[in-house]
């Protein structure tokens, strides 16, 4: 099972390679990152919306927002 999830992670990594910059809500409770800055998941953000590298967002434990899956 570990190999399978690793494989899925690898495939996701490849498909996301073109988008290296993502948007996150600079809120302490934010757990998602967004591909587009006008995503509906970001519209509820009352903090600053910041642009970060996708690798950094993932390292911070952020996951792709549910609206963009
Ligand atoms: Zn989003």
From TrEMBL:
This is Uncharacterized protein. It comes from Pedobacter alluvionis.
